[in-house]
C-alpha cells in the first residue's frame, strides 16, 4: 500500500498587476513551485496587466510536501525576468478546504530570505561533563540546497549559534550537496531555554553572503531525548518583521484542490473492479444496475471526475467501448427529442469527452496541428461581424488607399473559407489515422442512435450524434484554446484568438449539419455558408467511412497495434553537446526525436509524427514506466563525475554511495502516461463511499425493506443483487482502510524542529 497525493490546479487569471515595462504594461506568466521545485510554467500573456490563462494541471507529488507557491513573473527579452509577486498555499491550508481552495488571492512581495529549500543532516547529543553538561552538534551534510551563484551551485557553509557563541564550518565550493562532518560543542546549563540555531549560508567573495535556510532546535526537548539524528528541513528566516501591503501587487485567481489517498494492494480492489466489469459486460439496464445508479447518485460538480475515473478503469480492463455503449443506451432510453440528444452534461457526455482526450489526442494533433500553426504564423486580421470591423488594424490594400469595410469582410471570408476547407480536407483524409478503439466506439454510437431514431425525418440524427462529440466537444474547443490541448506552447494574441474563434464557430455549424437554428444565431456568418454546406456533405461522407468498420477489421487493427508496445511518450528533446563546457548557445544543443514505450527508449534524427512535449511530461512518463522496477537505487548522484570527484558532493569514489535519496519527484499527469489502475479504483471507491447513504436507501427500496444479509450474493439473478454486492464490497474496503497502517496518523519524524515566528 502507498500514500498518494495529488493537486488539481487551475490558474485562472490575474488583475491589477503592476507595470514592469516602459510601455506601462507587463508580459506576465506564472511559475508554480512545490517546496521550491519548479513544476509548471504557464504561457506568457503579452502586454497586459489583467492576464487570462485558464490553464489546468494535475500534479502528482509525495505526501510529505509542505507548500505550493505561485509566482507571477514579467518576461523580458533582453534582461532577467522580473518577479512581480507570489501566492503561497501551505499543505495545511489546502487540507482545510476539502472541496478545494477557490478565489482571488493577493500577491505578496518575494523576499530572498524566504526562498529556501533543501535539508541538512545533523547529529545532536547532550554529553556529561566535569562541571556542566555539553551540547554537541555534528553538522554532517546537506542536500538539495538552493543554487545562488551563476554557475548553478552555491558555496555553502554552516553557522551554529547558541547563547551568544557562534561557530562555523568550512566552505564547500560549488556544491548543492555539501559534506562537512564537523562537530561543535557548547556548554549546557540545566534548565536552559535558549534554542540552538543552525544556519546554512552561501559564501560570496565580493557581495554579501546569501541565506540558504535555518533549523531551530528546542534544547529542552533535546535534554529529555539526550540525542537525536536525522535530516531536518531548512526553514526561512521569519524573525524580521515585514510589512506586506495587500493589493499593491495585484491579485491572482486560483482553483487548487488537494487529494490524499491511501492506495491498497491490487487484490483489495479486485472485487470492486470485477463487479463493475461484470455489470458492463452484461450490457442490460434495470432498476438495480450499478452504472445507472452511479450516475443517479453523482452530483453535477463531481460528474466529470467520476466519468474520467470510470473511463480510465475500464480502459485498463479493455472495456471502454462496452462502458460507453452502456451509457449511450442509458441516454437514448430517456431521450424523446432527437435535437436534445447528448446536449446535457450527463455521465455519457462527460465520459465520452474524457475518452476522446485519452484515446484521441495524437489523432487531434495530426489533423489540427498544421491548420493551427498556419493561423498563428499568418497573423491575419479576420472579422466577419460588421459591428466589430476596425479598418485601421488592417493596413492598406494599395500604396495609398486604405481598405474599405467591404474589402475587409471579403478578405476575412476568403481566409476563413481557406482554413475551413483545409481542415475538412485533412479530416476526410484521416479515417485510417483515427485509432481503432475510437472508430469502434463511434460505430456503436451511430448504430444505437439509428436504432432509436429510425425513419427519413431523422436521417441526420446519427451523424449529429457523432459530430456532437467529435466537432462540438473535441475539435472546436481545441481550435479555440490550442494551448490547453498542447497544440501550441503559447496562448494566441487577440488577433489570432478572433480568427480561431470564428473558425471554431464555422466548425460548429458544420457539426450541427447546417441547421436553420445554427444559421439564425449569427447572420453575419452567411459568407461562409457555401463552404459550410459543402463541409456538411464532406463530413457525412467522412463519418460514413469512419463507422464502416467491421468486427473483423477492428480486431485486425487492434492486433496490429498490439504487436508493438504502444508509445507512452514521443517527441523532440534537446541534448547538450558541450557537456558543461562553454556558453549555453543554441549551437551547443542537438535536437533528437525520442520515443518511449513500456519496453524501450529509442531516438532518431527525424520525427515520425508530430507531438508537443514538455520536460515535465517526459519525466512523468519515465517515472510511471519505471515505477514497478524492483532494482531502483535508494540513492544517486545528481551531478556528474568529472576529473577525480563528483560535482554534486565532491566524493572521490566513483562507485560511492549516492549523496541524494531517490524519491518520487513532482511530476505532471499526462494523458499518454500508463494508467494507474489501483489509484483509479481507489478514487471510485472514495466517491461511492461518499454516496453510500443514498445507495443504502436505493437498496432498501428495491428489496422492500429487507436487510442486506437476506439478499443472495450471486450477480445477475435479481435486480438488487449487484447493489447488495457493491455495499458489501464498500464495507470490506472500508475495513481494509481502517486496518491499514498507512491510514493511521503518524508522528512527525523530527520532533525537535520548531518554526520560529
From TrEMBL:
This is Ras GTPase-activating protein 4B. It comes from the Eukaryota. It holds the Pfam family C2. Residues 1-105, 116-232 form the C2 domain. InterPro entries: C2_dom (IPR000008), C2_domain_sf (IPR035892), PH-like_dom_sf (IPR011993), Ras_GTPase (IPR039360), RasGAP_CS (IPR023152), RasGAP_dom (IPR001936), Rho_GTPase_activation_prot (IPR008936), Znf_Btk_motif (IPR001562). SMART domains: BTK (SM00107), C2 (SM00239), RasGAP (SM00323). Residues 302-512 form the Ras-GAP domain. Residues 738-748 have a biased composition (Low complexity). It comes from Callithrix jacchus. Signal peptide: none annotated. Transmembrane segments: none annotated.
